[in-house]
Amino acid sequence: MDSRRSLMSATTASLCFLWCICATVVVSNGELQRFIEPAKSDGSVSFITIGDWGRRGFFNQSIVAYQMGRIGEKINLDFVVSTGDNFYDNGLFSENDPNFEESFSNIYTAPSLQKQWYSVLGNHDYRGDAEAQLSPVLREIDSRWTCLRSFIVDAELVEIFFVDTTPFVKEYYTEADGHTYDWRAIPSRNSYVRSLLRDLEASLKRSKATWKIVVGHHAMRSIGHHGDTKELVEELLPIMKETGVDLYMNGHDHCLEHISDEDSPIQFLTSGAGSKAWRGDVDPMTNDPKSVRFFYDGQGFMSARFTHSDAEIVFYDVFGEVLHKWVTSKQLLHSSV
């Protein structure tokens, strides 16, 4: 173990360099870091979205992982999107925390899942060493792992804008409820959020992608345990509406759900059921019942497939059975359930 740690420390600098030149385009004017994922030869892009998962295989995490592998092969998976709360209960304690391999590398072993995993941090991740999950040392352990605070995945016809939502939530600063959050990189909540929103808005306005997706940990609209996140509704949602965002994907609530915005085409998709779910923890009065297209309070995950004209979103349970499917067309502006 000591020799392994020495090796990881010695290679950190070279990993940082290789990571940047091989997978990203870095722009110096404040634009979010960008990762390139070419579309398939048929012009399609497919990925799986999973959230709130890292529990060393317990709470059916391993079973969900198996079904993800099966569906990943079926849809010819390009990459995986993680909506945060990657490691429970309190993130990682360091970049050498065995929980990384015990909850990630040793669980998601299916051949179809040996693709890049693009991850944001959740509130539980901030309760540990948040910097550890961002460290290139983890990529030495498992090259699939890509985690930044905020960044872009450019898949040609689809651009996915990953947003660090935990610093938005004011109660984490004022009502920590006995938890300690790793705010080392965020000395000022207001300036951090303001800068992030400015960079995100600029990137969204520049985007020429057919489909624009924003991914964050916290729900913008939800009838689950946590419900709507007020700060995101007030500060992020207006930018999404102005810049033509199609979908918002999140975790945080340990359920699966699909809610339509009341006054825009935006669809809110929760995939936070990667392990421990909250059976029966639902508040149907949180949002207009007419806008709630689907809710499931068990374990599972979501897949997404995009072409230049169509998008297909599918939710699966812990047995890999289809619970809900939503298809929409850019050309016809028509959707069906």
TrEMBL record:
Alphabetical UniProt keywords: Glycoprotein, Hydrolase, Iron, Metal-binding, Secreted, Signal, Zinc
EC number of the protein: 3.1.3.2
Gene3D superfamilies associated with the record: 3.60.21.10
Cofactor(s) this protein requires: Zn(2+); Fe cation
Catalytically driven reaction(s): a phosphate monoester + H2O = an alcohol + phosphate
Keyword Transcription regulation: no
Superkingdom as given in the UniProt entry: Eukaryota
GO CC annotation terms, alphabetical: extracellular region
Similarity comment: Belongs to the metallophosphoesterase superfamily. Purple acid phosphatase family.
Name of protein: Purple acid phosphatase
Organism of provenance: Thlaspi arvense (Field penny-cress)
Lineage, uppermost ranks: Eukaryota, Viridiplantae, Streptophyta, Embryophyta, Tracheophyta
